[in-house]
Please model this.
Amino acid sequence: MSEHPRTSREVRLAATPSGIPRPEDFTVAEAPVPEPGPGEVLVKNRFFHVFAALRTLIGGSVEGAPFAGLRPGDPLFGPAIGEVVTAPDGGPRAGELVAHWQGWREYAVLDAGGCEPLGDALPDPVAHLAQARTAYEALTRAQVRPGDVVFVSGGAGSVGSMAGQIARLVGAGRVVGSTGSPAKAERMVAELGYDAAVVRGAGPLDEQLAAAAPDGIDVLFDNVGGEDLHAALAVAREEARFVVVGALSGQMSERGGGTTASLELDSFQLVVKQITIIGYSNFGRSGTDAEWLDRYAGWLRSGEIVFPYVRVPGIENAPQALHDMMNGRHLGTVVVTLED
Model:
């Protein structure tokens, strides 16, 4: 059996936040390294994803979500990549990397039957934490057609930074994104393939979007809701398709607990323009798809897409990383690294 410490660290919810979670709402605590039972694998985490939906879980979750809410004292969790330390015969081997949902801790025990080695298909193993598959599948649901104008709300975030690039690869003729930062807007156009970016707070969003997409939009890839969804409705063409994948307007709000994202829409516009709205989520899904992985790897290796992410070293810095991400400090995916 491989050597490993008796104790490790994990991030726990210390108190239910009032508004955006702050570092003092969490504690980095020591806990015994879990012992794997029959058919289980012990992994040492190398990377985990700091994701916005954690705000909703901290706020108590929502009905129908795949995960229950977090209470004070509970360890946080989320997408992670771990290195196998010990495993039963026939399972993944020591040293192999696996993806799982027990992030925010240094060690985790997993069911060996659900652990599929990641291999070396991707040029950087951290790219397994990208939200590219979510973006691809949601855009497929929206039936992006050659030449379509696609609007990606929250286009600089973890999902949006991939969605803008993938929209182009599946046929979009013009891609416009939204963000809350002029600096991010510049980077979206320079680095992520957007044709234009509109900025919340820099004037009426519907007017900015109408200028960026003067012929209207065919597809909305919506991470935000709120005024972004209102603006999309105002400039949508007939038979536009809206796919809703997130609710950042609620999750990033200082008010409430991140579990609601209410808004009013003009139903007449939906009817007159014959707009289709669908919701999409793969939250909590695990496992890999060989066909998708091969396509994604090809895009990365050819440079057709890039995976923008920020590395935050050390589990002790994870609470601050969550706070910074929720305040819009970073572009792309935020990843905490636990490498030796």
Observations:
- The mean pLDDT is 91.
- The chain is about 25% helix and 25% strand.
- The chain has two domains: 7-130+308-337, 132-279.
- The radius of gyration is 20 Å.
